[in-house]
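TICKET: design request
STATUS: open
ATTACHED STRUCTURE:
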């Protein structure tokens, strides 16, 4: 339909009302087309990385269980940071945005991981930790049922979009990514979990 509308717009004999109507229709069609393509990307990535996320979630849950047993046995002496880190990792695997390629917590070959990838992962984990502190994500996602998880994911679409800075979509140069990180620290940029 976009092609038909653009071909009609090339005609010289159109009156202004028809031309304006066609331009509006073209704009609406292009917006619809971009939404459909992003939805398709989300669906593709969700199915592609589902098993990786599942196994990583199982690993993190296993480590959490071991740490909780250790805390019960020995007390919380210095283990709270590790517990918080594991809870952030669990939220990372649960609420990672589907519109981007998944960055594994446990890569098969850690030596092949680039510094840029590590920076992106650290940025996303920092955003998730802050959302957990603000109460926009659950502290322990094991206690959330599937329906609530879907609602949280749907409600946090805007926050997930702000992660695009970490994926280099907003700015490509080094200085732009630094300013993006400082802007992300403000409340205005924290649209991800609102």
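STATUS: resolved
RESOLUTION: sequence designed for all positions
ATTACHED SEQUENCE:
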């Amino acid at each position: 339909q976009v092609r038909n509308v653009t071909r009609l717009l090339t005609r010289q004999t159109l009156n202004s009302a028809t031309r304006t109507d066609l331009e509006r229709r073209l704009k609406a069609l292009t917006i619809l087309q971009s939404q459909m393509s992003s939805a398709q990307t989300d669906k593709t990535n969700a199915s592609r990385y589902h098993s990786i996320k599942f196994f990583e979630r199982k690993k993190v849950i296993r480590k959490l269980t071991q740490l909780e047993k250790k805390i019960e046995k020995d007390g919380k002496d210095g283990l709270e940071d590790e517990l918080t880190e594991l809870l952030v990792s669990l939220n990372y695997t649960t609420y990672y945005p589907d519109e981007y390629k998944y960055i594994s917590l446990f890569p098969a070959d850690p030596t092949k991981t680039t510094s840029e990838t590590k920076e992106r992962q650290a940025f996303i984990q920092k955003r998730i930790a802050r959302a957990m502190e603000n109460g926009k994500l659950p502290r322990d996602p094991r206690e959330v049922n599937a329906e609530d998880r879907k609602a949280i994911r749907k409600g946090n679409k805007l926050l997930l979009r702000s992660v695009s800075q970490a994926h280099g979509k907003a700015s490509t140069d080094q200085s732009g990514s630094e300013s993006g990180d400082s802007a992300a620290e403000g409340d205005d940029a924290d649209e991800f979990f609102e």
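CLOSING REMARK: The chain has a mean pLDDT of 76. The CA atoms of residues 40 and 145 lie 26 Å apart.
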